[in-house]
Amino acid sequence: MAHTPPEPDAGPIGELLAIMARLRDPKRGCPWDLEQDFASIVPYTLEEAYEVADAIQRGDAEDLCEELGDLLFQVVFHARLAAEQNLFRFADVVAAINRKMVRRHPHVFGDVAVADARAQSEAWEKHKAGERASKGIAADSALAGVPVSLPALVRAQKIQRRAAREGFDWPRIEDVVDKLDEELSEIKDALRAQESGARLQEELGDLLFSCVNLARFLDADAESLVRDANHKFEARFRSVEALARQRRRELRDCSLEELEALWQQAKRQSD
Predict the structure, then answer these.
(1) Tens-digit pLDDT profile for residues 142-184
(2) Number of folded domains in the chain?
(3) Which pLDDT score is estimated for 91?
(4) Are the C-beta atoms of residues 262 and 236 closer than 8 Å to each other?
(5) Phi, psi dihedrals of residue 146, rounded to the nearest 5°
(6) Quick one: 216 and 250 in the same domain?
(7) pLDDT-wise least confident of 1-10, 12-21, 59-68
(8) 242 shares its domain with 203
């Protein structure tokens, strides 16, 4: 492993870079940190990003500050690995995002005028398309360049937006709802016909994809909607557990009618 001196900087960022350099020092560093590479720390990078989202969801500013620091450390870690291989340095990461933000905001840093946020978003996408072309990313499809590693709901909404910009879209939200009904009917038909598990899973995937499309029509983020639904279910289920304990009952021993009654009581308490 090549020894790369810490990048010159001042203040807390410089201290963080120095800490990272020490952790990766071949002689005095941390054994665990020294074993890592780009691929091995990807799960931690994703985890920290989700923990940032969780802190925002909970409205916990103190925790958000801490989680943003953890995420920043992941950026520094990746940059350190790159510097050791003479690929790029942390300063290059910062310089690149500075250039990108200025380039993508000519209405702020230049003399380009935009009518509203929608127009700005369209201009943003044009800038991104130009950047993809300059990187040699194939432009044979409007869907080119959408990362396959994105969470499924996020990627579904992104490719739907790309398709919609090309005119491949329903004209009315009622059409989207009709498509949802159609997909649900196909699942019911497959169940009645006792279709294979693979066929049912395919139909269920189509239904979920259509649900994401409805979220897009409502200008809502599908990933956030499901996250909110998870939070709501968890809160109500915990209430159901508490209500059952008050009655000295185990949920697994309750009848379906009892469970429904507990659920409805939990809903009333949360509303």
Answers:
(1) 888 889 989 999 999 999 999 999 999 999 999 999 999 999 9
(2) 4
(3) 96
(4) no
(5) -80, 115
(6) no
(7) 1-10
(8) no
pTM (2 d.p.): 0.71
Distance (Å, whole) CA 199 – CA 186: 10
Q: Specify the CATH number for the domain of residue 174.
A: 1.10.287.1080
Question: Quick check: is 110 in a domain?
Answer: yes
Do 263 and 240 contact (CB within 8 A), yes or no?
Answer: yes
Q: How many residues does the chain have?
A: 271
Q: Enter the tokens of residue 88.
A: 């790029």
Residue identified by tokens 């020092």 is 25
* Residue 112, pLDDT score: 83
Q: Which domain holds residue 127?
A: 105-140
Residue 265 lies in a domain: yes
Kindly state whether residues 97 and 109 are assigned to the same domain: no
pLDDT band for 123, please (50, 70, 90 cuts): confident
Could you tell me if residue 191 is inside a domain? yes
Query: Is residue 5, in this structure, part of any structural domain at all?
Result: no
